[in-house]
Amino acid sequence: MVNVTGLDLKNPTILAAGIMGTTGAAMIRMVKAGAGAVVTKSIGPEPKIGHSNPSMIQLDCGYINAMGLPNPSYADFVDEIRIVKEAVDVPVIASIFGGDATEFVQVAEGLGSADPDAFELNVSCPHADGYGATIGSDPALVEDITRTVRDAVDVPVWVKLTPNVTDIVDIGKAAQRGGADAVVAINTVRAMAIDVASGYPILGNRFGGLSGAAIRPIAVKCIYDLYQALDIPIIGVGGVSTWQDSVELIMAGASAVQIGSAVVDSPYVFRHVSNGIERYLDEKDHAGIEDIIGIAHEMI
Amino acid sequence: MRPIDTRIIRTIQETPSTRTFFFDVSFDDAQPGQFVMVWARGVDEVPMTLSYINAITVQKVGDCTSHIVALSEGDSLGIRGPLGNGFTMPEKDERILFVAGGVGSAPLAPLADRATSIGASVVSVLGARNSDELIFEERFSQAGEVYVTTDDGSSGRCGFVTDQLLDMDVAMFDHIYVCGPEIMMYKVFENLRDKQVHGRAEFSLHRYFKCGIGVCGACCMDPTGLRVCKDGPVFNGLQLESSEFGKYKRSACGQKISI
Question: Which residue in A has a C-alpha nearest to residue B244's C-alpha?
Answer without folding.
Answer: A25
